[in-house]
Design goal:
Layout: E1 11-16, H1 31-45, E2 50-55, H2 63-68, H3 73-96, E3 102-106, E4 115-116, H4 119-127, E5 131-135, H5 145-155, E6 160-165, E7 170-171, E8 183-184, E9 186-188, H6 189-194, H7 202-210, E10 215-219, H8 225-230, E11 237-240
Parallel strand pairs: 1-2, 1-6, 2-5, 3-4, 3-5, 6-10, 9-11
Antiparallel strand pairs: 7-8, 10-11
Helix pairs in contact: 1-3, 5-7
Length: about 240
């Protein structure tokens, strides 16, 4: 049952990596992980939060890696965009199995399986309580899904970007490789850029800074973390002014 709860954020953009769907597999989508993510998302819908989602395609195809091995960069990036559509449809299925009304909007037109991205329509879906998954990146090569997330967040007038990761937040070094790495509770956009903190790529960070759009980087693998962060608990790292 949906029970509206007062939260610091009314409308959010959740950024998921394609690798988040891998689970224990080497490639593709692990249904168990997709179901776990859908359950976590349902906990937000239950409190009346409006939710847009951007998901990467790295579990299927990574355009940058392919181009580094000799493939034409434009072609490789378009292949990566199509991978995000596959992931979006997989996540849509998991969400709808939980009774959550969901729409996939693609920046690359494919009307048989997704709506074209239209800003006003996306906002209207959100206002009606539908989850909107934005597929196909920006629709242009040479831009990452981080940039797509920042762009869509600005377009739908989101209050915050929630960047899901497999670590607790933003560190001064890779916490998986360096056990002495220190986590930041809060960093500025400039710190992210000048210290190369790898939160999101520079284009995405600059877009967020120009539009004063905060980012919360948190561990999605801990059950309940995303709801706690949305409800104002100190979870992860806050990126802002």
């Amino acid at each position: 049952m949906r029970v509206k709860q007062k939260t610091p954020y009314k409308r959010i953009l959740l950024k998921l990596s394609g690798e988040a769907l891998l689970g224990k597999q080497f490639t593709g989508v692990d249904p168990e992980i997709a179901n776990y993510i859908a359950d976590e998302i349902k906990s937000l819908s239950d409190i009346g939060v409006q939710l847009g989602i951007v998901i990467g395609g790295g579990n299927i195809f990574r355009g940058v890696e392919a181009s580094s091995k000799g493939m034409d960069r434009t072609t490789a990036d378009y292949m990566g965009m199509l991978a995000t559509v596959i992931n979006s449809l997989a996540l849509q299925t998991a969400l709808e199995e939980r009774g959550l009304p969901t729409r996939v909007q693609s920046s690359i037109e494919m009307r048989e399986i997704a709506e074209p991205f239209i800003q006003r329509r996306a906002i209207r879906h959100l206002e009606k309580g539908r989850i909107v998954i934005f597929a196909g990146g920006t629709g242009n090569p040479y831009f990452s899904t981080d940039t797509a997330a920042a762009l869509r967040a600005v377009e739908i007038r989101a209050d915050v970007i929630m960047k899901a990761t497999k670590v607790e937040g933003v560190y001064n070094a890779d916490p998986i490789k360096d056990k002495k790495a220190v986590m930041f509770n809060k960093v500025t956009y400039i710190d992210v850029l000048t210290k190369n903190l790898k939160v999101m790529d520079a284009t995405a960070i600059s877009l967020c800074r120009d539009n004063l759009l905060p980012i919360i980087v948190f561990n999605m693998q801990k059950k309940g973390n995303i709801r706690k962060a949305i409800c104002g608990h100190k979870i992860g790292t806050y990126v802002g002014e």
